[in-house]
Amino acid sequence: MSDGDAGHFITSDLVARAFEGARVVIRDVEGTILYWTEGASELYGFGKEESLGKSSHELLQTIFPEPLETINKILLSTGQWSGELQHRSRDGHALIVATHWSLQPYDGKYVVAEVNNDITKETALKRDQAYLATIVASSDDAIMSKSPDGVIQTWNGAAERMFGYTVEEIVGQKAAILFPPHLIDEEAEILARIYTGNSVEIYDTLRRRKDGSTFPVSVRISPIRSEKGEIVGSSKILRDITLQKE
Q: According to the model, what pLDDT value does residue 230 have?
């Protein structure tokens, strides 16, 4: 493919269908790069002259989610493949990209159009969120979150065991259901402090189980903020201190 042919090809309907911000690479089925866009240079750091004629898989040190032979079978049988790949940029940084490969006819044969989008930050965020969810799920402390009006929104396994309420029973209920009658005003006082932006330091109090029995707990409450810094809820960690009290 000459530079003139490549230029004609890359300005065809193929690129018109590529959504804004995508990085496009045209290569043959074996991986040899036939055309390298400026967007690809911005993403990976390799210039066009460094890329043309090279194997894209070797240049970008691609790590595939499954064997390349398997991916190519899907590509050749269906005309497309989508997934996530790990690439490495010119300066050595690892990148996670969401990629879409499609077979396109050209000059009596097929070439592969790759549209790659950097999702490294999003992937790291999802990983961190999954790790945090695992910590919450496996904690021995009851961990819950509440809306600004005190409605329970999340409830971990330790909270189920501690209070006797399942997630289905408790989510959507007012947190006051967990307070002994003589401490019912404590919830309003806590919410008032939280929504002035203050954390509630660890303190000891009593809570009530589903069966009506009360038990001593150590409580820590913190505000939950949105990306804009607005307080949108509160998180609460409770530890059963019955043994310590005894």
A: 86
**What's the rounded mean pLDDT across residues 224-238?**
86
DSSP 32: B
- Could you tell me which residues are beta bridge partners of residue 26? 35, 113
CA distance 104 to 145: 51
Asked if the model's pLDDT at residue 16 lies above 70, the reply is no
Which tokens go with 94? 């690892």
Q: Judging by beta carbons within 10 Å of its beta carbon (0-12, 13-18, 19+), is residue 44 exposed, middle or buried? A: buried
Q: Is 67 helix (H, G, I), strand (E, B) or coil?
A: coil
Q: Token digits for 229?
A: 């810094």
pLDDT band (50, 70, 90) for residue 23: confident
Measured CA to CA, the distance from residue 224 to residue 148 in angstroms comes to 10
Backbone angles phi, psi at 196, to 5 degrees: -100, 5
Q: For residues 236 and 41, what is the distance between their CA atoms, to the nearest angstrom?
A: 47
Q: Among candidates 55, 126, 54, 60, which has minimal Cα distance to 99?
A: 60
Compute the distance between CA of residue 240 and CA of residue 200 in angstroms, rounded to an integer.
Answer: 18
Assigned token pair, 47: 């210039």
220: helix, coil or strand? strand
Does residue 77 contact residue 88 with C-beta atoms inside 8 Å? no
Position with higher pLDDT, 102 vs 127: 102
The structure tokens listed for 32 are: 């040899």
For residues 192 and 174, what is the distance between their CA atoms, to the nearest angstrom? 16
DSSP tally for the chain: helices H, then strands E: 11, 10
